[in-house]
Write a structure and sequence with these properties.
Length: about 625
């Protein structure tokens, strides 16, 4: 894992911008604390900051290879999980290797198969390859969107980076935000319209897409999309195939030359990963390490409603005993979770998911003290139907993003001069455009058609927000997080499974529960879903209230260029009473809304955001 960036320009001499390139590189130090490298000529610069995980010596970047007298240079962020299979295929084609890194395998794959190399990869990645003779750049991002790739394109030039802050260190990129960027932050945020950011001139390469940039300009191509198919496997065959896919994926992702661990909340998803990992470690006489997170003095009481908020401790202990892991519980101080909102904003380069971001950032910092790689159960809910909007019929006929309501109330915060369009139509247009692209066979029942639409929305919108959070919070600490449930084989197969089978026994993620029902404790298999813990402790609530009061007390607070001061005062004084639904997701309520407001103000201030017409 690492951080990458680059700059290609056909009109300017890149050598004359070396100081700017160094500044860009420096922003990626946290992503790649172990090594740095740069390739530069008059036309292009490619920069790499490395977090060393596999083959420390031969995985150095940029990496260079020559074929038929032409030189190719690559920078790469990610991991390939089918390296050995590809290496075998390449050897049969006559290619030789200097080491055993996946970096070398990826570049040689491009030399062997060109752009179709992407069809061979199983992994998470963002990379760029410079073809020196033909003077063009080829870049790609993994199918699920686990690894980031932001860019700025202009006449005759192209700049890319793993993080937005890196682009903003380039003199060609300005931190401009217009009224539509404001809409992204307040009406869509902390999610993002696929491919866009709040910044006017910064875009993101979408998952499953690749690009080329040369003298004929920028060309973008989608190389992967879910194929709609009629699911013909019987229930038992489906269970067996999913069991194979999941265990195979987890095993592949245990490869590492540095200490590796698993996140373990005691929920179904993390328990599956930890159990498989523990079994594999035991074969070699080793013990897997696991980590859980909790807040000091917080007791998460069970409540009726959409979700269960029960304490994880009992379930974590149950799993730890079942798999014999070396377990570590990270306890976070409530005030520190509030104070870390600043760092979380800077890590993400945009306002994020409040204490879900700041707590994960602190948690990853503690994990990094002993481990460099962690496996996470993130994204199972999006793929297997774990959220209330999958199982609650009230959501099925809701013609809107099910995780994001209150559009009219959010718009009330925004100054009128920025609302030259209808806020509800802005959101609806994005919703309808996404729904229209949902892969379907045309033979689905009405319910299966709707579940596919909800799943497709989740994969392209909600899941991307969570992957953003996980990548930035972990890489801020030099920690690599792997997400087995994002294996494209699992996504492709599960997407087409009928809902009646997927919600086996009438439960959220019912099929996934059944797949591992023989290998996990009964209480774990049938535990009601408990979301990632949101902080409602009085100390945290007072912390974020104080932050918003300070914003109100400072006449120079940049957020008031965008929002109405009276509406913010009303939000604070009424404790968000008008917001009948969470701002975003299942749990982003009053304390998190205040935290989000603080993150917006922090972002505007620290990034010197320029609001333009």
């Amino acid at each position: 894992m690492s951080g990458i960036c680059g700059w290609m320009d056909f009109q300017q001499d890149i050598f004359s911008f070396e100081k700017d390139l160094q500044k860009m590189s420096e922003t990626l130090r946290r992503r790649g604390p172990d090594d740095t490298g740069m390739y530069i000529n008059r036309q292009i610069a490619l920069i790499h900051r490395r977090l060393s995980v596999i083959d420390d010596e031969n995985g150095k970047q940029p990496i260079y290879k020559t074929k038929d007298g032409n030189e190719y240079i690559m920078v790469y962020n990610g991991e390939l999980y089918n390296t050995e299979e590809i290496r075998k295929d390449l050897r049969e084609l006559g290619y030789k290797f200097d080491g055993y890194s996946d970096t070398e395998v990826l570049l040689l794959s491009y030399l062997a198969w060109g752009k179709t190399c992407l069809e061979h990869f199983n992994g998470i990645f963002a990379f760029a390859i410079y073809d020196k003779t033909n003077e063009f750049l080829f870049a790609a991002r993994d199918r699920a969107g686990v690894k980031p790739f932001f860019y700025h394109a202009y006449m005759g030039g192209f700049i890319f980076a793993s993080e937005i802050k890196t682009l903003l260190k380039n003199p060609m990129v300005k931190p401009n935000v217009n009224r539509y960027g404001i809409a992204e932050v307040f009406l869509i945020g902390p999610g993002r319209t696929p491919g866009s950011t709040a910044f006017t001139d910064i875009e993101e390469l979408k998952p499953g897409h690749c690009l080329t940039f040369g003298k004929d300009g920028l060309q973008i191509h989608q190389y992967w999309e879910i194929k709609p198919q009629i699911h013909t496997d019987r229930l038992q065959d489906t269970i067996e195939h999913l069991h194979y896919l999941l265990t195979d994926t987890i095993k592949r992702q245990l490869v590492s030359d540095v200490p590796l661990c698993c996140f373990l909340s005691g929920g179904l998803d993390s328990s599956i990963i930890s159990a498989v990992a523990a079994g594999e470690y035991a074969k070699d006489g080793k013990v897997i390490s696991t980590y859980s997170i909790s807040y000091s003095e917080n007791e998460r009481e069970s409540k009726s409603g959409l979700c269960s908020f029960n304490n994880d401790d009992h379930y974590v202990t149950l799993m730890q005993k079942a798999i014999g892991s070396n377990h570590n519980n990270v306890v976070l101080e409530n005030d520190k979770v509030g104070d870390a909102l600043y760092a979380a904003t800077c890590a993400r380069d945009l306002p994020g998911m409040a204490d879900a971001d700041s707590s994960l950032l602190l948690f990853c910092g503690q994990v990094k003290k002993r481990h460099t790689v962690a496996l996470s159960g993130e994204c199972a809910d999006e793929i297997f139907g774990g959220y209330p909007w999958y199982t609650n019929p009230e959501f099925w006929n809701l013609a809107d993003f099910p995780w994001s309501g209150n559009t009219t109330l959010k718009a009330m915060l925004i100054r009128n001069k920025f609302l030259t369009f209808d806020p509800q139509e802005y959101v609806q247009e994005r919703y309808k455009t996404s729904i229209a692209k949902t892969p379907k066979t045309g033979e689905e029942s009405d319910l299966d058609r709707r579940i596919k639409e909800i799943t497709y929305l989740n994969l392209n919108w909600f899941m991307q927000t969570l992957l953003d959070r996980e990548d930035r919070a972990s890489m801020y600490n030099g920690l690599e997080i792997r997400v087995p449930f994002c294996d494209h084989r699992i996504i492709e197969y599960t997407f087409n499974i009928p809902w009646e089978m997927k919600c086996y026994a009438g439960r959220e993620k019912g099929l996934l529960r059944k797949v591992f029902s023989e290998e996990l404790p009964h209480e774990i298999v049938y535990r009601k879903k408990s979301p990632y813990p949101k902080n409602n402790h009085p100390n945290y609530v007072e912390n974020v209230k104080k932050k918003v009061r300070n914003i109100l007390a400072a006449s120079s607070s940049p957020i008031f260029e965008i929002i109405k001061e009276t509406e913010l005062k009303n939000l604070l004084e009424t404790e968000g009473a008008l917001f009948s639904k969470p701002w975003y997701g299942q749990m982003m309520n009053f304390p998190q809304i205040l935290a989000y407001i603080y993150m917006i103000d922090t972002w505007l201030k620290e990034y010197n955001v320029d609001i333009i017409d």
